[in-house]
Specification:
By secondary structure, this protein is α/β, with parallel strands linked by helices. Helix content is about 45%, strand content about 10%. It starts with 7 loop residues before the first helix and ends with a helix.
Length: about 220
């Protein structure tokens, strides 16, 4: 995986919400997590990094599903079935049957499993494909939805909202893109770059805030008209 930086606190939040340790491995209340945020904020990259770091916990495997549509999910499921060498079901079966068979076969290993449902903006695509209490499966769903109704009866501790990076994290990311912190630049140069990056981040942050406020004011005026 390419270099990752700027979301260390969010990685810790995911681990805390899912409780990835042996003590809580059978805790049914900690099996599902929604990671929401605008497009391009880093949801997929964050969850992939989490899966990479916790692969020793998920001995049963990590499986990625494209949840943009039912057809995309089915294709991902069929790919995962083939690549995991699970046999015994027809790929012509309906989606629920395929899913239940796949889960049943994985549970025979008696190991923890992680499913990543990526880009799911319509809950109906996956609402019948979520872990049951007796299954050792964690599911992380990435979505652009922020509406509380989208998450139905899923309590707040199962939702992680991603926003723009904090200033220090954003500066770290910019410096990493420039190659600093990899022992290929002098300390003075890095300090100068850090100062410049911080100014750039703050300018960009103020610009985003101004644009957001302007949009909200325009919407309010339009509603009054």
């Amino acid at each position: 995986m390419s270099m990752f930086c700027g979301r260390s606190k969010d990685l810790q939040k995911i681990e805390a919400k899912l409780c990835c340790d042996e003590e809580h491995r059978h805790d049914s209340s900690r099996k599902l997590l929604f990671v929401s945020g605008p497009g391009g904020v880093g949801k997929t990259r964050l969850t992939a990094k989490f899966a990479e770091e916790k692969k020793s916990f998920y001995q049963g495997g990590v499986y990625l599903f494209n949840a943009q549509s039912t057809s995309a999910f089915r294709q991902s499921l069929e790919t995962n079935i083939v690549e995991s060498e699970v046999c015994g079901t027809s790929l012509k079966s309906d989606l629920s049957s395929q899913y239940n068979f796949f889960v049943h076969q994985l549970q025979k290993q008696k190991e923890n499993v992680l499913f990543l449902y990526d880009s799911c903006d319509k809950l109906e695509i996956i609402e019948k494909l979520l872990p049951r209490e007796d299954e050792q499966i964690h599911v992380i769903v990435t979505t652009r939805q922020r509406d509380g109704h989208y998450f139905l009866d899923h309590s707040p501790h199962k939702v992680l909202h991603l926003d723009v990076l904090e200033t220090d994290d954003a500066v770290q990311t910019l410096l990493s893109w420039k190659g600093y912190g990899q022992n290929n630049g002098g300390l003075d140069d890095e300090c100068k770059e850090k100062s410049s990056a911080k100014v750039l981040v703050e300018q960009r942050r103020r610009s985003v805030v101004r644009n957001t406020v302007t949009c909200l004011l325009n919407e309010k005026r339009n509603c009054k008209q």
